[in-house]
Design brief:
Length: about 150
């Protein structure tokens, strides 16, 4: 049975879940430029892609010690979620799906947010971030990919 929920995106150029409302289809009365069907997820990933190749994979997980009653549909820092790199084992179609999403947009790079639906055993792209926040390890991975790509030419 398909989800009865709709993700309403009132702000198109926003981050951290700002401008997102999740409504029941029968009660939908919000005007917005974008509506999508909510897809239940078991896991959520961010795959960084450079030059058609995944260079980093992170998983969004609930921060240790976080209250179990927090929002789970929108996974952002305000709701207690953080990006993790340890013991990340994405589903088989996660990385090819991310790489295909960046290619489909004709981009050189992007940070692809992907969810995995356990019932369908399938990944779905939420969005491709063209200006992902970068610090620490992420900066190093992009720099290594860029420099490695330059040396190949």
């Amino acid at each position: 049975m398909p989800s009865r929920s709709v993700v309403v995106r009132q702000l198109i150029d926003a981050s951290e879940g700002r401008g997102i409302t999740i409504c029941n289809r029968e009660e939908l009365n919000v005007q917005a430029p974008l509506y999508t069907q909510y897809i239940p997820k078991k896991r959520e990933y961010r795959v960084h892609v450079w030059a058609n190749r995944a260079i980093d994979v992170q998983e969004k997980r609930r921060r240790r010690g976080q209250d179990g009653n927090k929002e789970f549909q929108v996974r952002n820092t305000a709701n207690g979620y953080v990006f993790c790199r340890d013991s990340v084992n994405p589903p088989e179609d996660c990385i090819p799906t991310a790489e295909a999403a960046v290619r489909a947009l004709g981009r050189t790079y992007g940070a692809v947010d992907i969810i995995w639906n356990e019932k369908q055993n399938k990944c779905f792209v939420l969005e491709v971030n063209s200006r992902p926040g970068m610090q620490g390890t992420t900066v190093k991975k992009y720099a290594d990919a860029i420099l490695g790509n330059l040396h190949v030419r």
